Amino acid sequence: MIETVIDIVSWICLLLGGAFGIIGGLGLVRLPDFFTRLHAAGVAETLCPLLIVLGLVLQSGLSLLTLKLVLILLFLLFTAPTATHAVARAAMLDGVEPSLGNDESEPTSGEPSSNT
Amino acid sequence: MSKWKERIGKILRSMRYILSLTIVLAALWLAVSGVYKPLIMLLGVGSVALVVWLATRMKVVGVEHNPALYAGRLPLYWGWLAWQIVLANLNVARLILNPAQVRPRVFKVKVPHDTAVAGAAYANSVTLTPGTVSLQMTAGELTVHALDRRSAEELKSGAMARRIAWLEGSDTEHP
Q1: What's the pTM value of the predicted model, to 2 decimals?
Q2: In a domain, A99, yes or no
């Protein structure tokens, strides 16, 4: 009985993780410029692996495998922001202008900037 | 002769960090390997020794690089950060599905921390929560790109900076 419940929770986590991966990928295409797209990549590299690893941990049960899965997540969560920052900083130093939107003004269009 | 004394003294002082690094690496190896045969174990000892030697050569063994320093408070911070990541993700996912609401902005926030490692932890946490990305860090200031007003307000409220200060142990100076 308890195994079925864990299985269901695990599947919910895996499916939600996959859904956030897709949303992140969608954001890479839909958001207007280079810097806003970084945030979409952020979705695909934080909550998506978080949920997928959680789902896999529930599948594996308590074992050495659990530790390995958590280590994968840990390394990912340490390296991903470093890489994102490196890319963002390089873009800024290279003179890529972020498109800025005021709260009052018209929202930025969905057109991709030529800089990307 | 005094040069040698100095060198030996330096090695003895860094012994603590070398020892803790060795223990962490050995535990990591034992956990990830799973094969406990004599030859494999010997290779494990060899690789740990190699990494520790490289780390001392690179002069990256020291208090700043020792995660055991924050051992007590780090899990609590990670728990809080994980929750922030979930909240930020929901906000950004909503914006991706409705890009018309995206209002990108660039602004600066103060970095009130004393040590470089706390500043790096702050910048990394900012990037780790979607909706905010650290662009550039200078002394005492962090340039941030945010996706919309809510992400920016969340960061400007200083909640994250306060938790990092608590993590660092300097929160008494910044109540």
Answers
A1: 0.78
A2: no
B171 residue type, one letter: D
**Total number of domains constituting chain A:** 1
d(CA B58, CA A113): 42
- Mutate which: B33, B85, B147, vs A, most A CBs within 10 A: B147
Is the Cβ pair A35, B82 closer than 8 Å? no
Q: Which H/E stretch holds residue B109?
A: strand B105-110
Q: Model confidence over B2-42: pLDDT tens digits? A: 778 887 877 777 787 788 888 988 988 888 887 888 899 99
Residue B85: φ, ψ to 5°: -65, -40
Contacts of B107 (CB under 8 A, 6+ apart): B143, B144, B146, B152, B156
**Contact criterion met (CB below 8 Å) for B29 and B46:** no
Name the residue type at position B38.
P
Phi, psi angles (nearest 5°) of residue A47:
-70, -35
Reported ipTM: 0.79
